[in-house]
Write a structure and sequence with these properties.
The chain is α/β, with parallel strands linked by helices. It is 42% helix and 15% strand. It has helices at residues 23-34, 53-63, 78-83, 85-105, 143-163, 189-203, 223-236, 253-264, 288-292, 301-318, and strands at 14-18, 39-43, 67-70, 110-114, 166-172, 174-176, 207-211, 217-218, 220-222, 243-245, 251-252, 269-273. The structure holds guanosine-5'-diphosphate.
């Protein structure tokens, strides 16, 4: 497969980043500016309701972007996904369908759709190659979200096949970084633990409770690495197959809890609430396709975790 058949984007092209206040969208915008893009537009819910088809079409008509990064989605951790599957399915299907329809109507030539590693079957070979897509049943706690994202991948392929659009999909592993949601119950594991351990240090608590058994393994990518990978793909990748974006190594949730404890200076006890779901046992991505087009991550988990914990401490200290 020739994966490097595209030329770098024109830095004066108008780039629309949907989901501009989210963790990924906000950092993609910073990277676009750093790379010399002169016409970058960020869209979030106050600008346009992407769940509304007419509003989305009208908005695209007013901006007329040449390039779109779709980082707009309803996202959340295992508990939010498990308890509100209807919203995770419907909102994500609506957002991406409206966005693709509007992008196609104004002739967007390059579009990057961001999916998630949860699109792959629950018991995939590890590390998970892109070819594992649609080869087995999904993890139940986030199957609604996963199906919406799978529909996005198929939509991107379909626009390519039927209309010749040079649209692409990237499948990032669990993303983290400054600016994430640190909600105690709705967020993903890494920010949730930073908050819980930080609060334990502040209150002098001797124990922190972490969900599940601690045995599931997860791979984490810093949002700066993900944003850099997105821009690299837009410059160098043009193929119907999605591209995994990961860092190549994973940790157990028990190891992650110890790393977070070290990062925030918690020295007490860690206990496990096994009434909470573990989710999928492991989802380490095979990133050889991305490596093959010349990109690799730069931020080590321990360093990224420390920076994110510091950012969180500063942001709660400031409020
Ligand atoms: P997932 O990767 O889609 O399963 O999403 P999460 O980031 O929400 O959860 C990853 C793993 O961390 C699961 O095994 C959870 O049980 C575990 N976990 C442990 N403590 C927490 C917590 O406080 N919040 C979340 N979201 N997950 C936790």
């Amino acid at each position: 497969m020739d994966m490097t058949k595209t030329v770098p984007l024109d830095r004066s092209a108008t780039v629309l980043v949907a989901g501009s206040t989210g963790l990924v969208g906000s950092v993609v915008i910073r990277h676009l500016h750093e790379q010399g893009f002169t016409s970058v537009v960020g869209a979030h819910t106050a600008d346009v309701d992407l769940t509304d088809p007419a509003a989305t079409t009208e908005y695209f008509d007013s901006i007329r972007p040449a390039v779109v990064v779709d980082a707009a989605a309803r996202v959340g951790g295992i508990d939010a996904n498990n308890s509100e599957p209807v919203e995770f399915l419907n909102d994500n299907l609506r957002i991406q369908t409206n966005l693709f329809t509007a992008a196609h109507a104004v002739g967007v030539d390059r579009l990057l759709f961001l999916g998630s590693s949860c699109i792959y079957p629950k018991y995939s070979p590890q590390p998970i190659p892109e070819s594992a897509l649609l080869t087995g049943p999904l993890e139940e706690t986030n199957d609604a979200y996963a199906i919406a994202k799978i529909a996005g991948v198929i939509a991107v392929r379909s626009y390519r096949r039927q209309y010749g659009r040079r649209w692409i999909s990237a499948m990032p592993t669990n993303v983290y970084g400054p600016g994430d949601s640190f909600h105690p119950t709705r967020s993903h594991v890494l920010p949730a633990l930073i908050r819980r351990f930080h609060e334990a240090v502040e209150s002098g608590a001797e124990e922190v409770v972490v969900w599940g058994t601690g045995t599931p393994r997860r791979e984490f990518i810093h949002v700066d690495d993900l944003a850099a990978a997105c821009l690299h793909l837009l410059d160098h990748y043009d193929d119907p197959e999605p591209v995994n974006v990961g860092c190549g190594t994973d940790v157990s949730i028990a190891q992650l809890a110890s790393l977070v404890a070290d990062a925030v200076g918690f020295t007490g006890r860690i206990t496990w609430d096994v009434s909470k779901p573990d989710g999928t046992p492991r989802k380490l991505l095979d990133t050889s396709r991305l490596a093959g087009i010349g990109w690799k991550p730069a931020i080590d988990l321990v360093d990224g975790l420390r920076d994110t914990a510091r950012w969180y401490a500063d942001s709660v200290g400031a409020s």
